[in-house]
UniProtKB/TrEMBL annotation:
Active site residues according to the UniProt entry: H234
Upper taxonomic lineage: Bacteria, Bacillati, Actinomycetota, Actinomycetes, Micromonosporales
Coiled-coil annotated spans: none
GO biological process, one term: methylation
Keyword RNA-binding appears in the UniProt entry: no
PANTHER family: O-METHYLTRANSFERASE CICE, PUTATIVE (AFU_ORTHOLOGUE AFUA_4G14580)-RELATED
Pfam families assigned to the protein according to its UniProt record, in alphabetical order: Dimerisation, Methyltransf_2
Superkingdom field: Bacteria
Xref: SUPFAM superfamilies: S-adenosyl-L-methionine-dependent methyltransferases, Winged helix' DNA-binding domain
Protein name: Methyltransferase
Entry's transmembrane regions: none
Amino acid sequence: MGFIIGPWLAQAARAAVDLSLAEHLADGPRTAAEIAEAEGADPAATARFLRACASIGLVTYAEKGFAGTEVLAVLHRDAPMSLRDLAASQSSPVLWRTWARIPEAIRSGEAQTAQALGMPFFDYLAAHPDEGALFGAAMTSMSAPVIQAAVEVIDVAGAGTVVDVGGAHGSFALALLERHPGLRAIVLDLPHALPGARAAAAGRGLGDRLTAVAGDFFAEVPAGDILLLKFILHDWSDDEGVRILVNCRDALRPGGRIVITEILIDDHAAGIAPLMDIAMLATAGSRERTLTEFDDLLARAGLRRVAATPVTPPYAVIEAVPY
């Protein structure tokens, strides 16, 4: 039953985000009627929803109405590791229409976004900027703990410019800039992601050190000393991944290297990795990869692995240089 009602739980989290429960309860308990009035929601339905949230640990009963919990707190927009955007994005119709076709993806071995959305996933996001922006923000929040761990292990000695390839809002590049004052960064992504990258850089006082560039990593990648590929290769087939890596190899300055941050999976993997693998199959016809599979991609692109450092499980930082 826990598996079967999983969609109810995910949509409860999405509704909690939509009603800003974490924000309303941040300063103390409130009644259902107060929250309903603030949100323009039906009072009786709001009370029923809060009762449901109490049953799953998002809120607790208080002397006056309801109080937030530590679980709800991560859905606050200002939480240090906020999952607000991720909850909204992962439970949105865009992804759920695709994931409803997981049986078809398993039978065919192919992505289902064209059938569900009428076009490939990233084309859909480009054609629907609001949904593209939400997805970019979701990936930023999902990346936060991985980035925090990855910047600890990346050696930038001798580097002047990092390029965040497909970097969305540039969170990875910005974290490196904060840690290393001598660096400059370029974020390469589709046009819908660039306002978010520029706003994020300005908000962290790094607007003068980060440049956001619209482009296509299948065509060309800006030159740099360190090229970051975070959660990129798992979106694409092996042949497409090789094309991306070749363009990155060609963009490396002498002595530069490519830094790949991805899930590492194996035949007995547990936790999120095998589930993410199936999500990638349905969404993009792609996959999570083993270290051997990454080595094969690198070799096909004229690259060799020089390091693979585990960070937040199941993620690793893989470094590669040209042969």
